TrEMBL record:
Family as reported in the entry's similarity comment: Belongs to the ITPRIP family.
Any one GO cellular component localisation term in the record: membrane
Residue intervals of the Mab-21-like HhH/H2TH-like domain: 261-311
Membrane topology: Single-pass type I membrane protein
Keywords: Membrane, Signal, Transmembrane, Transmembrane helix
Subcellular location: Membrane
Gene name tied to this protein: Itpripl1_6
Organism: Poecile atricapillus (Black-capped chickadee)
Name the record gives this protein: IPIL1 protein
Length: 359
């Protein structure tokens, strides 16, 4: 239902912004466990989609890193640059040029650049963009076929567009995140932390600094959700049992929950095991053996106090997953750095592993 609704919205969005100088929404991308085919026990029941935003004519987006802390807290600012459109035409008409046309002419034609509408200074403002995007969804709702059978109610949210759909006794919650692609890669900066980042903490592993709870209105968190979903799709096509890795993930995040390891930790471990155990061995009859492979990989990471980020610095990443140039060749990031710095947390993690192995 969510995927079909997003297709309908996309068609209406294109028409709505065609003659404006607002961002141009692109085809939605489902992100998170619900769209990957697994869900942890703590899943909040929200179907999240990422709407990539392209710059309107006469504008360019430049994501700029503004915090180089832990990966879960990396944020960017999206600088908006005006570019010359004097030699460009749209539908046979010469475009207005915000660089060379006079302010008087722009005012006379009631045209304002993105810098004047959705930016704070030179940077795209998440909260202003969210209000505009929410209004775009509101005005588009009656033009999509789903409006005839579903009832839509908006939920309060300052950095995304969240709403509940209901039809009789059926209901579902959808959150539309919006983001900017880094170059031509599969890495985005988004309006709000994604599911994995929200649920990344555990009892003994803190993957985000406390100050990450506050995000400035011009700060866009970085997400690897699209790259991870693309990886899952890539490996599924080469397995004897295309969903076995997802069933393994569900065992650890649902059946064996409560031992202190977060769902994002399990997801990272499973993705690493998928690049070390040949995909031809992921068959139903070897299900238990793959579970033990995952346990053994986690034990080794705990002993070494090192769990490497799956995307950053991973030389085993399939070539199908595209990274921005600045991210290529970087050093792997240790997601278990906290355990290396805190002996008490490491002892608790090893104790939790022993309990998990017994269960």
């Amino acid at each position: 239902v969510t995927a079909e609704l997003m297709e309908s919205f996309t068609r209406v969005f294109v028409d709505s912004v065609r003659n404006s100088f607002y961002p141009v929404p692109q085809e939605a991308i489902g992100v998170g466990s619900a769209f990957e085919g697994w869900s942890p026990r703590e899943w909040d029941g929200v179907y999240r989609v990422l709407i990539p935003l392209n710059p309107p004519p006469g504008h360019a987006f430049h994501p700029e890193l503004n915090s180089a802390g832990q990966v879960a807290a990396r944020t960017f600012s999206v600088r908006v640059e005006l570019v010359c459109t004097c030699k460009r035409e749209q539908l046979g008409k010469q475009l207005l040029c915000f660089v060379h046309h006079s302010q008087e002419e722009l005012r006379r034609k009631r045209k304002r650049s993105l810098l004047e509408t959705l930016c704070t200074g030179s940077y795209l403002d998440v909260e202003k963009t969210s209000r505009w995007f929410r209004q775009l969804v509101r005005s588009s709702w009656l033009h999509v076929p789903q409006s005839y059978s579903w009832h839509l109610v908006f939920q309060p949210c300052t950095r995304s567009c969240q709403f509940q759909l209901s039809k009789g006794k059926k209901s579902l919650t959808v959150e539309m995140l919006f983001g900017v692609r880094q170059g031509d890669s599969d890495i985005f900066v988004v309006s709000q932390p994604t599911e994995a980042q929200k649920g990344s903490s555990s009892i003994f592993v803190s993957s985000q600094p406390a100050e990450a709870n506050f995000i400035a209105s011009t700060a866009w968190p970085e997400t690897y959700a699209v790259a991870e979903a693309k990886f899952f799709h890539h490996v599924a096509s080469q397995m004897p049992c295309e969903n076995l890795h997802l069933k393994c993930l569900q065992v650890f995040t649902c059946i064996l929950s409560g031992t202190g390891f977060s769902s994002s930790t399990w997801k990272t471990v499973v993705m690493h095991v998928l690049t070390t155990v040949p995909l031809s061995r992921w068959s139903r009859r070897e299900f238990a053996r793959r579970l033990w492979d995952i346990m053994a990989y986690l034990r080794r990471c705990l002993q070494l106090k090192r769990l490497e980020h799956f995307v950053l610095g991973n030389e085993r990443l399939p070539a199908e997953i595209s990274l921005p140039p600045a991210m290529q060749g970087v050093e792997p990031l240790n997601l278990f750095e906290h355990l290396a710095q805190n002996p008490a947390a490491h002892r608790e993690a090893m104790r939790a592993y022993g309990q998990l192995r017994f269960r």
